[in-house]
Structures are given as structure tokens and as C-alpha cells.
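Notes continue from the previous slide.

Worked example: a multi-chain complex. Inputs as given:
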Amino acid sequence: MKPVNTLFGITDSCVYLPVNRTPVGLVMHRLGEQGAAMRISEEEYGSGGFREVPEENVCSLEEMIYEASAPVLRRAAERGAQVKAILFASVTTDAAAGSLFARLLREFSLEDVPVVRLAEYGCAMFHLSLRLAYAYFAGAAGEDDAVLFVTADKARSARERSDTYMLFGDAASAASFRNSPAVRHRVLASGMKADGIAYDLCPERVRLYFSTFYLSVRQLVRQVLRQAGASMNDIAMIFCTNLGLGTWSILAKILGCPLELFYADTLAGEGHLHNTDIVMNIEKAAVSGRLRKGDLYLAVSVGFGGYYGCSLHQYG
Amino acid sequence: MITEAGAAAVSVLYSGVVASCGRQHADEAVIELLERNRRWLSGLDVLMCGFHVQSDPTVHSCAKIKSRLRLQDALPIALDGSGCMAFRHARLLLDWLIAEGSCRKALCILGEPEERDSPDGTGERAYRITVLRFAGSRHEITTDSDGEVKLDGCDS
């Protein structure tokens, strides 16, 4: 990575959330009737801080993508930013990216902009996109260039609403990466680990993943802090994939930080929204004033099967 | 002396059709192909995979290939649903990583299933696979004592 005096980071973001919220108990009951029961009880799942699941009943996935991306593209155009690529992640669709972005690309005259759909990283796609965007800006990028990260999920079946360990809500979000003084969330250091231990559902590999993923997160967080010459004492907040209070308690213990450092305001009403978690949590904390200018924070993503991302940011 | 990263050089290491022989996934055919050609794997920084159709969404083919071939140092990147744009998208991302300098050598595997006629007329599943090598080139720019600038290219 380049030295930390780069201007690379997030300049803008937008999150689309469904109006409808379904209580966790109702969703779990429905899954049980569909033969996709969770492995834990409603009470145990609720102890993780989860209360409701956003479920989209009106918009199509394409419309959700539009609602999240259009504001970011509009503001980018107003600021003279040139979108050079869109990195797209979705766990819940097999539609070609081109068909999902057709209206958006046409409206903003971006038909020549490649929409690259990334796969396999589960809920760590934010950091893969950040890593790739960083590489772009470290090369021959222009100062007005932007790379968009867009993610959207809408469950079409019981299997996409739950993997029997967690419930997944519907949402879409977009974040603009630039190398510019306009950056609001500067990236000071970042790292990725992708061992993909559990590359299929083989029980032995899944068990190995669950028993080791905490260590991989710790290794990565320490690496990123060391890279920036920072320590956990410098960190104002941790924005992590919404894995719940139980998992976060273990992460907090092995990272040597208080659980309260983990931003938990969206656990109850939004829960886990695949790759939208990180962008949503950062945006809500900034808007509400929980994040203050100058604050250093960590973004930590965990993708099921062995994909991890960590980045150190400075706000404002 | 100044050293600058240049555009990636692309070589086609393999392009052909592999019979499924009962294999459920293209990744199994790829693993066997790469096992037979281990020399392609040395010094790999990135393993990129783009399978036109993923027959089993619960299998992460790129991670599976990385794990089975013990490519610990290679960053796996999987493209999904790129279809006929797969090469363009792979090239885009690998050019970024190579220009940045973090990737000197990458393997890109593109694959799609294909139905072929078999002698007994029942039809046979096969996989069309292409293996591409992306290698970063570096230019050495030197100035001699007379002030003449020379440019020498070399592969990473």
C-alpha cells in the first residue's frame, strides 16, 4: 500500500431500506413452515440484538439499485466526477448485472462504464471493492475519477432469507470511492484475507471456519493498525458486519476493546443486510453525530466461508 | 534509474473443451487441468475465475481451486454473470492491480458448460475452458552520462 498521506476514501454514499419491517419471530416461524428452520431459537437470536427484518414488498431489485445509486450518481455529476467503473455485489440474484443497471446507465449516460459483478466474498465484498478501487487510484487514475461500489439484496426464497444461522434483510446501497480532497471518509490503511476455508457446505470445513474466523479477524485488525501506526486506543468506533452482540462480544474480547466500541444502532431495526451493513452503519453514525470529525474508526467485514476485510478510516 | 509498471501482457495458456466425465462442476475440470500444468501456478499473486454459469451456488469455485491447489499467496477474485464480458472485466481489474504493482502474475480462468452430441445420441456435458496468464511488465528508464534517456522493457 502507498503511504498513508493519500486522499483515497469514500466521498458519498446512499442507502435504500424497505419501509416494511417484519418481527424476527414471524420470519422464523414462516421459515420453519417452509422447511428452513433456524438452528437457534427466537430468544437466542434476539439476544444478539436483532428484532426486525426489512422485507421489500414493492420494489424490484433493479428499482432498489436505482434508488440507492441515482442520488450518488447525481451528486457525482454535479461535482464533475467521472464514474469509471461500478463494482457490484449481490448474494441474492443470478441476474446479469447489465440488466439490473440498464436504466441507471442510460439515464446518467454511463453506457460505456463497466459493471463488474464480484462473487464469493459473501459479506466482505465492501472491502474487496475498496481494495480494487484503491488499486485503480494508485495507478493512472484522473483526479475527477470515481469508482462506485453498489450492493443490493432481495430474498426470493427461504434459503435467501436465512442460512439457518442468521436472518438476512433486503436493502441496497451505493458508495463512491475517489482520490480527492472531497473525500469524507479517508482510508488510512486496509487489508484483506481470503482463505475461503469453507468453499462449500462440507460440515468439516464449515466447523473449521466457525472455530477460526475470530482469529483471522484479529490478525487482520492488528495488521491494519500496525500498518497505520495506530492502536485500538485511537479508535472511536468499529463498524462491523451486523453479526450480532454475541459474536461481537467475542471479537471485542480478542481485540482487547470494549463491546461498546461496536456500532450497534442498526441491529434491532435493520439486522444483517449482507454487504449494505458497513455502508449503512457508517452513514447513520455520521448523520446522527455519533461519528465526529477527526474520529478514527475501523470497518470490519466478515464473509461466510473465510473472507475478511478491515480498513482504518478518518472521518471528515 | 526509474522503474514503472506497464500494461499487463496476456498469454493464452489453454483453450479447449474438457469432457465432464461425470464431474459436477467446471471447477473440478479446471483443478485437474492445473494439476497437470503446475508450472503455470508458480509465483501467482491473483487467481481470477469467471464461470458463465455456476451450477451450484453453494460452491465457491475460485476459493475451491485456490484451496485444492494450495495457492496460499494468491488473492482469489471471482466474477459472476459477466457472460461475454468476462474477459473485458477480468482485464480491467487485473490491469488495475498490475499497474498498482501489487500483482506481477495472475491466472484468469474463464469457463462455461457446453452440451455436445455423444455417439449414443444422449448428449454429453462438457466444459469450455480458457486459461490466461496476465503478467505485469516493467520498464526501466535510465539516463546515461551524456543525458540520453533509455527505455528497457522486461517482464515481471
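Summary box: Residues 142 and 285 of chain A are 30 Å apart (CA to CA). Chain A has two domains: 8-179, 185-315.
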